[in-house]
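Before going further, learn to read the protein records used in this course. The integers have meaning only within a learned vocabulary of local backbone shapes. To see the layout at work, look at the sequence and tokens printed below.
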Amino acid sequence: MNDKVKHILAGLLIALVVGIPCYVNSYDLFAGLWGCTAGIIAGGVKEWCDNRYNWEWDWKDLAFTCIGVAIAVLFILGLHFGKG
């Protein structure tokens, strides 16, 4: 699997695992969206670790992780506004 696809899936998975329970427990849209910041933080920490161990910091990897988080945000927005 391509590295960039892995970053998208990791950002999506982390954001959904943290964001959905935050949203479902409170039904507050902002709680779900704040939960999605975990995906961005995880991507940043991963790149920081790469840089710390003499690998290169890759802004593209972080950007693709954020794309996965953005997909999770769209899903949570769909949950919130799709209730009818």
In short: The chain has three helices and no strands. The chain has a mean pLDDT of 88.
